[in-house]
Design brief:
The chain is an alpha+beta fold and 416 residues long. 36% of the residues lie in helices and 27% in strands.
């Protein structure tokens, strides 16, 4: 874990960072009802984590703090998280930092306490096919959900026990022969309401069960003075919400944030395949230029968040001459010992630079570059070339990228 990231003992300390964010899961964490908030020591970024969701805010777009939070959250979780940011700019920052990640779209509804028609909701609640019955949360229902889990696990997954659920939340379930086949329940609770979770077993869909359960749940919330917040994961969920009286507010993008272990396993597999492909590409080609060209292309395609990948070859006077590359036009010649490439040549070993602006004498061929990895290509004890990798984000490169580049440097050395 990052020592600069810590869990807030007093969640309300993060209120200025989340100010104006109309999300109930954020509210749950801020008011201390459930969930946790992590922040950096300087309090320039914070992340509210509850169940499958992580809401990250950094109004000043502190890149280093956001990166540290993302790394920390990924290291803590054992399952994928839906990552949300408060606006497009902060979402773009998160997207640039997480690398390869699935992007999704969700649908927010307006939080309007007077939007519901009780008479209409009563009609929906009573519109049940023969053989089905509705039930509120009971110890037996709780036990069935705990035992079976699966598609119904999130009806109770964020509550410690039946007592805490009964104190904070509500749930309505459609039963068939005593078995739960559909439910509308509290995914989470906050001071004054709940976030609705609704799911139907695939064998019992298209029978208005979800509508009946949701209508009954909303009526129960209104009786108790709770607001039943509805955030739709898809258009079908939004259409149901609108039938019940909710009004559409806006769409927002999310990222699927995988656990660190899963990301590392996928990366190791991907890099292993790239190394094998590199060996195959170079196997029957004796000339170094096409070998460098293919390796540059392979690195550029394999590595995410990289804006330049290529080679410089060492000249008789010790300077570096531009070789095959992928990316924007680059510096053609680099004087001996200059920049990160020159440092790698002089030292005869890889240079992994997390922040190029902090590296003395850095040469900015592309002003967008923020971090760099340079690996020397050594033959017969002498540096003959370097592999140069640039990224537009800080701290992009790790020992994994270094090992991959060094493997490719070994393959290329045989051709020089």
């Amino acid at each position: 874990m990052n020592s600069d990231i810590f869990r807030l003992e007093e969640p309300s300390e993060a209120l200025p960072l989340f100010d104006g964010w109309d999300e109930t899961i954020v509210w749950s964490a801020l008011d201390g009802t459930m969930g946790e908030i992590y922040a950096n020591r300087a309090m320039t970024a914070a992340c509210a984590v509850l169940g499958d969701f992580a809401f990250l805010a950094s109004p000043g777009q502190d890149e280093a703090a956001v990166q540290a939070l993302l790394d920390d959250v990924q290291a803590r979780t054992d399952h994928a998280l839906i990552l949300v940011a408060p606006d497009e700019a902060q979402f773009a920052l998160c997207r640039s930092l997480v690398g390869e990640a699935e992007i999704g779209l969700r649908y927010a509804t307006r939080k309007e306490t007077g939007a519901f028609d009780p008479a209409r909701l009563h009609r929906f609640a009573e519109d049940l096919p023969a053989g089905y019955a509705l039930s509120g949360m009971t110890p037996e229902i709780w036990a069935q959900i705990r035992e079976k889990g699966g598609w119904m696990r999130d009806f109770i997954s964020n509550f410690a026990d039946y007592a805490s659920f009964s104190e904070l939340a509500l749930g309505v379930f459609a039963l068939k022969d005593g078995e739960i086949v559909c439910g509308a329940s509290a995914y989470s609770a906050f001071d004054g309401g709940i976030e609705v979770q609704i799911t139907t077993h695939e064998a019992h869909r298209r029978r208005h069960l979800a509508r009946a359960c949701a209508a009954k749940l909303i009526l129960g919330c209104l009786e108790k003075g709770l607001y039943p917040s509805w955030d739709a994961a898809n258009r079908e969920s939004l259409r149901l919400a609108q039938q019940l009286g909710y009004r559409f507010s806006h769409t927002y993008s999310v990222l699927l944030l995988e656990p660190k272990a899963a990301v590392e396993a996928r990366t190791d597999k991907k890099y292993g395949e790239a190394a094998a492909q590199a060996a195959s590409l170079l196997a029957d080609e004796p000339e170094p230029v096409p070998c460098m060209a293919n390796l540059a292309a392979l690195l550029f395609e394999t590595l995410d968040r990289v804006n330049w990948a290529g080679f410089y070859t060492v000249q008789p006077d010790g300077s570096l001459l531009l070789g095959p590359f992928q990316g924007k036009p680059a510096c053609v010649r680099i004087a001996r010992g200059r920049g990160v490439c020159g440092a790698a040549c002089e030292a005869g070993k890889a240079q992994l630079v997390p922040d190029v602006h902090a590296f003395p004498g850095h040469i900015a061929c592309d002003s967008a570059s923020r971090s760099e990895l340079v690996v020397p290509v050594v033959k017969d004890g002498a540096v003959r070339a370097v592999i140069d990798l640039d990224s537009p984000v800080q701290n992009r490169f790790t020992e994994r990228e270094r090992a991959l580049a060094e493997k490719m440097a070994e393959l290329l050395a045989e051709k020089l």
